[in-house]
Specification:
Strand content: 15-25%
Number of strands: 7
Shape: elongated
Largest sheet: 6 strands, antiparallel, barrel
Helix content: 40-55%
Order of helices and strands: EHHHHHEEEHEEEH
Amino acid sequence: MRVVSIPTGLRLAAVCLLFSVPLAVFESVVVTRSPWWRIPVESMKASGLLAFVLFAPLALTLLRARRWALTVSTILALIWCAGTAWMAVRDKNTSLGFFLLGLVTYWIVQLYWVKFELGRSFLDPGFRWFQGVPEAIPGLKAMVGRGSNGQTFKVSRIDQDGAYLFFRETAVETFVAIDPKIVTQVSLAFRNRQLSFDGRWVSLFDRGQGARGMGLQFEGLSPDAKKDLGDFIESLRGEGHV
């Protein structure tokens, strides 16, 4: 999958991952129990540099919506928290114990946030590794574009923020010509209901054999449109499709 327009939520989650750097710097002070007038500068530099080297590349990788970055971040967070707990017990450092509570809270919130952003419909097509294409929601169609230039797609996932559309065969020129900077119109149809929204392309994937798909993020929804979309999704959920 290729991200063509980074969603704001994912961008913020990746940036907040770098908050681990000042946390590592502050921990080096707590571990040494140094007074404010004699802080361990060298230890602070080493801790901050190590955290930056470990988590900065992961933050950049998250901007490309690579799920393995979440797995690696989780492993590093567990090692970090376990090491801090061990030092707190070994040194009987009460301050480090309180720091550990804040550290665990930070990582729980941060990792959950990243998982939530990566799980949005326009970034997660919803297919398993052994599937060539996602499983379509029965009866749900999406028309992208206006008039004779519009194209019909199947929908594999949808929520109140966007949807993932896919098709098996289409002109390569059409697929390549998608511009993430241009707001497009998408119409959703299910049974006797139809809704229209503006959206922006977020991600593209190509599994070969003519199977291609795109993640679309809805934009500029009015309160009434959000309510209509919510009711639309509830009707899909009521039939077990979402």
